[in-house]
Amino acid sequence: MKLLALNASHRGERGITARLLSRLGEGAQQAGAGFETLSLARLKINRCLSCHQCQEDKNHLQCVYNDKDDARFVFDRMAEADLLIFATPIYLMTMSGLMKNLLDRTYSTMDISEVRLMGGLIHHHVNPAISRKPFVTLLVCSNLETLSWRNAAEYFRIYARFMETRQVGLLVRNASELFAAQNAEAMQRRFPKIPQVWAAFEQAGRELAERGAVSRQTARRASQEVIPVPFFGLLKRLPWVRRRVVQVLNDPSFWE
Ligand SMILES: Cc1cc2nc3c(=O)[nH]c(=O)nc-3n(C[C@H](O)[C@H](O)[C@H](O)COP(=O)(O)O)c2cc1C
After folding, report:
1. How far is the CA of 28 from the centre of ligand 1 (A)?
2. In the beta sheet, which residues pair with residue 4?
């Protein structure tokens, strides 16, 4: 089993998405799978120009950027993998631009003249080796409210339907900054569920290696609230509590 993670954080390996992926990768490798992460921030992925040359007879399924940037390289790696992990931070309530740019570029691998209606969606031809791979979605965001990531989660649910593939796990890691390595011990003292989350990411990797899907229980544990929810209820209602909490969290002595 070969897992390929596409990390769409604009911070690349310095971000929290990379840390979470690395833990998942450890679990996958322990269970015998191959695991690789491509950090899109390190690659050159031009945006689709919507020029439609890839759809013309002359340049059929050839992008004008072929060999001029790294999209083809990424597609080749996707084609070699058995399972993909679309890992994106949430930027303004949706996936990052890097992730969307890459997905848009798969357009040049699809013949949009081959159309059919199925299950309320108009489908067109896709390249199965690239777009019909089962995938896991990892959404990483700093806020606590579900509205931040719901749009992206819905996108990937419909993406799976459109591509006629399976989303074999949805992992949502909010309060992401708590998973930065600095003051890791202090964080874990304050938020005792943090180690459970790390363990769940490792377990998710093992499950992907062993059965090609993340169990509901593991997805729940990886995505659980680490800041107690009643506390969050208060935050939402009382702006002054929120201000005070931000002050406390920003005070270095809190983490000592
Ligand atoms: C441009 C931008 C927009 C963001 N928008 C949101 C948002 O809408 N909701 C949220 O919870 N976090 C938002 N964040 C925070 C990131 O999702 C969070 O810092 C995440 O950990 C980034 O992933 P990374 O650490 O792998 O880079 C935003 C960050 C940036 C840079």
Report:
1. 26
2. 36, 84
**Percent of the chain scoring above 70 in pLDDT:** 93
Instruction: Return the HEC string of 138-193.
Output: EEECCCCCCHHHHHHHHHHHHHHHHHCCCEEEEEEECCHHHHCCCCHHHHHHHCCC
**pLDDT beyond 80 at 229:** no
At residue 237, the pLDDT reads 62
36-79 pLDDT tens trace? 999 999 999 999 999 999 999 998 999 999 989 999 999 999 99
pLDDT the model gives residue 231: 57
Which atom number of ligand 1 is nearest to the Cα of residue 174?
11
| The pairing of beta strand 167-173 with beta strand 83-89 | unpaired
37 and 17 Cβ atoms separated by less than 8 Å: no
Query: Does ligand 1 have an atom closer than 6 angstroms to the CB of 11?
Result: yes
Domains defined for the chain, CATH in brackets: 2-225 (3.40.50.360), 228-256 (no CATH)
